[in-house]
Amino acid sequence: MAPVLVDHPPLVRRSMAFLVVVQTLAVFQMFAEPFVVTEGGPYGSTTTAGLYLYEHITASDLGTGAANSFLLVLLVFGLSLVSVRLLRPKDGTS
Questions:
Q1: pLDDT for 22-52, tens place per residue?
Q2: How far apart, in Å, are the Cα atoms of 52 and each of 6, 15, 16, 25, 43?
Q3: Which DSSP string corresponds to 22-71?
Q4: Taking the complete model, does pTM exceed 0.90, yes or no?
Q5: How far apart are CA 54 and CA 60, in angstroms?
C-alpha cells in the first residue's frame, strides 16, 4: 500500500504562520548587532533597515528617515499579509 502524503499537518499551520510573521518582523527590526559589531560594515555591507533609519535620523535628515520608516512599515505589512495568506488552510476552515 502506498503512503499517503500530507503537505502540512493542520495543527502546525497556525504556529508556522505565527513564527513566519514574527521572524519577518525581527529581521527588519535588527539594529543592535550590526551597530555594535561593525557600525554598518565595510562599504555598507551589514547595513540593515534599522541601521539605515538610525543613520538618517542622527544626521538630521528627518524627512528621508520618516519616508523610509513608512516604506518599511508597508513592506513588513505586505510580507506578513502574503505569508499569512500562503499558510492559511486551503479548505476555508480556521
A1: 888 888 888 888 888 888 778 878 888 888 8
A2: 43, 31, 30, 16, 13
A3: HHHHHHHH--HHHHHHTTT-GGGTT--HHHHHHHHHHTT-HHHHHHHHHH
A4: no
A5: 10
